[in-house]
């Protein structure tokens, strides 16, 4: 039996912990909120972040980081991206030097513009970082918890570590592919949330499938441009972490980012929308980081810039879409 510590009991962290516990691993799930721990212990349900999904009885929830991580052979980091640095800095003292660390958070740290693997690099030793893995792909937490067939990718500079994590998670309904492009998988998982906000705006404004298909296709093109500029492999953006996750978050009704965009397109304010949400829509924070990274690397990202205008500058959603349509004509380019 493998001991696993999962740090973060939001919907995604809870779903991953459920997958692992159902495989028979000894899983300890750390939650910040006492009510989440109490609910899981009492009713085997995370009523706050993953309501309606029955969790396995061998999944153990705790508010104590030390208890969650003591002697863990694998540590899964799933806190919201803006809190990963602080949470994992606190967690580091309890993590074995030989533990394999997996980052499953999708986002970019706004204050530093660091990817999650770079945030981990500021916390853990070079030896621990050699095997660091990142897990991403098209995977709504609710559907994973309900055992709907899902495919994801785990990337690492260490092929052996990627295979270990693949084996840790692989089940009949949760298929894991391996790869080596940590930068690309990290960026794809963060950037797609901004495009998903735009997709929601388009639908909220009342436009149809033509508009949505164009947005998704051009969205992956600009994700790819920034990724290449930052050292990622172009092919990653056509895979599960790129196009796969982008299609899911742009079209799926369970997408929090799409939902926020939809409500913006319907005329609600961002403040009012966020006031009704308990879970985090990562793209709302990531849009600032994407804007800053595009400027730093000199990459043109028109969709992301219009989303930045709506969320940060208060631009009109309908005008933002018109701005995209009226840009100067040009060849279709994927680089």
Write up this protein.
The protein is of the alpha/beta class and 335 residues long. 50% of the residues lie in helices and 13% in strands. The chain contains 16 helices and 10 strands. The strands form 2 sheets. An 8-stranded mixed beta sheet has the order 3-2-1-4-5-8-9-10, with helices on both faces. Helix 9 packs parallel to helix 12. The model has no long low-confidence stretch (mean pLDDT 96).
Please render the helix and strand layout as text.
Elements lengths: L2 E5 L3 H12 L3 E5 L3 H10 L15 E4 L2 H5 L4 E4 L6 H8 L8 E4 L4 E2 L4 E2 H6 L4 H5 L2 E4 L4 H5 L4 E7 L2 H11 L4 E6 L2 H23 L4 H21 L10 H12 L4 H10 L4 H5 L7 H16 L4 H10 L5 H9 L10
Parallel strand pairs: 1-2, 1-4, 2-3, 4-5, 5-8, 9-10
Antiparallel strand pairs: 6-7, 8-9
Helix pairs in contact: 9-10, 9-11, 9-12, 9-14, 9-15, 10-11, 14-15, 15-16
List keywords for this structure.
two-stranded antiparallel sheet, 13% strand, alpha/beta, 335 residues, 8-stranded mixed β-sheet
Query: What portion of the residues fall into strands of 2 or more residues?
Result: 5-15%
Order of helices and strands: EHEHEHEHEEEHHEHEHEHHHHHHHH
Helical fraction: 40-55%
User: What does the radius of gyration come to?
Assistant: 19 Å
C-alpha termini separation = 46 Å
Strands ordered across the widest β-sheet? 3-2-1-4-5-8-9-10
Q: Identify low-pLDDT runs.
A: none
* Sheet having the most strands: 8 strands, mixed
Number of strands: 10
Structural class: alpha/beta
Average predicted local confidence, pLDDT: 96
The general outline is: globular
Number of H- or I-type helical stretches: 16
């Amino acid at each position: 039996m493998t001991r696993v510590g999962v740090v973060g009991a939001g919907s995604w962290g809870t779903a991953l912990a459920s997958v692992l516990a159902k495989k028979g691993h000894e899983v300890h799930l750390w939650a910040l909120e006492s009510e989440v721990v109490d609910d899981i212990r009492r009713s085997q349900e995370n009523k706050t972040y993953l309501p309606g999904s029955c969790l396995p009885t061998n999944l153990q929830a705790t508010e104590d980081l030390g208890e969650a991580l003591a002697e863990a052979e694998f540590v899964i980091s799933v806190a919201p991206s803006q809190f990963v640095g602080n949470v994992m800095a606190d967690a580091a003292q309890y993590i074995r030097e030989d533990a394999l660390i997996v980052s499953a958070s999708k986002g970019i740290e706004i204050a530093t513009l660091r990817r999650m693997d770079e945030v981990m690099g500021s916390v853990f030793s070079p030896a621990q970082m050699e095997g660091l893995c990142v897990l991403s792909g098209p995977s709504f937490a609710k559907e994973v918890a309900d055992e709907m067939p899902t495919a994801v990718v785990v990337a690492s500079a260490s092929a052996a570590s990627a295979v270990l994590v693949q084996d840790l998670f692989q089940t009949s309904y949760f298929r894991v592919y391996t790869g080596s492009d940590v930068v690309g998988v990290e960026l794809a998982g963060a950037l797609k949330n901004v495009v998903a906000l735009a997709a929601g705006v388009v639908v909220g404004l009342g436009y149809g499938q033509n508009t949505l298909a164009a947005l998704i296709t051009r969205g992956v093109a600009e994700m790819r441009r920034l990724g290449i500029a930052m050292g990622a492999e172009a092919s990653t953006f056509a895979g599960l972490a790129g196009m796969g996750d982008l299609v899911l978050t742009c079209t799926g009704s369970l997408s929090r980012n799409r939902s926020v965009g939809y409500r913006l397109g319907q005329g609600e304010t961002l403040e009012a929308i966020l006031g009704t949400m308990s879970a985090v829509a990562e793209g709302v924070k990531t849009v600032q980081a994407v804007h800053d990274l595009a400027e730093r690397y000199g990459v043109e990202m028109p969709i992301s810039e219009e989303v930045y205008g709506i969320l940060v500058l208060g631009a009109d959603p309908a005008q933002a879409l018109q701005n995209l349509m009226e840009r100067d004509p040009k060849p279709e380019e994927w680089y």
